[in-house]
Amino acid sequence: MKLRFILPLALFAALIVLFAVGLQLNPREVPSPLINKPAPEFDLPQVADAEQRMTRDVLTQHKISLFNVWASWCVACRQEHPFLMELANSKVIPIYGLNYKDEREDAVDWLRRFGNPYQQSAFDHDGRVGIDWGVYGVPETFIVDASGTIRHKVIGPLTPQVWREKVEPIVRQLQEAP
Amino acid sequence: MKHLLAALCLLHAMAATAAISAYTFDAPEQEVRFNKLSQELRCLVCQNQNIADSNAGLAVDLRRQLHEMILAGKSDAEIVDFMTERYGDFVLYRPPLRASTLMLWLGPFILLAVSAGALAWFIRRRVSITNEAPLSEQELRRLAELTRGQGDKS
Q: Is A3 an interface residue toward B (CB < 8 Å)?
């Protein structure tokens, strides 16, 4: 007789737990299969100068670097931009950019107006390199080590909180490694 | 006002046709494959649409990619591998059976088994309730006494 009441209650409680966990998850964050894999090769013109090329090799010149996918049409990129400037000015980590599906004039103008946190930005006009890197929502930020391995990927704006909680520990660990 | 409405309708029609980019193929068989694959690949921007339905920038790019790969003679498996290498199993509307997708594949059957079991249990219990001992002769007589006369009223 007791079971009649306890069983539905238990089922209900289980459902609540399921929903509570489900609501904490972010369906927009699709785990990238590229983590701990070699960063895809590319060879693109730079945003600032179409004559100059930028390849994947610039990322492996440093112990660790950030590869930030951005666009002038991307609202959340504006949101993360001040923090990228802060990171660039503090020289904690070199930042490279992938300008994704943008117009060159817009991109140049954007950097001129708001500041340029990037050592270089590659100009991926048709988004093909974006596909190779599994980009699906700008902004995205990849953490690449000296061997050219992708160590982490941030989907969405790189906020101070995301930096502190997710990125900084990885960066510290790799910078301190011999 | 009428003209404006007509213009708006026209504009709308143009937007609708713009979504269907005309891809040309060398063989009709390639077009069939293109349609089938573009319906099975999920657009990661608007997650509940496939790349055939979605008009998001990425879906357009992936359709272009798909078209190029089909024309280049890539097999379906090669194309699916290309997509999953970049976007993971999430890009597939029919993900492969793996430890991480086990619940996805088996979940409905487990749920079906559990509910069928619960239903069977419930029915059996009801049967046992209705199968109570029949009324004794004395009870039957009392019942007749109590209900006597009620039939006359109506």
A: no
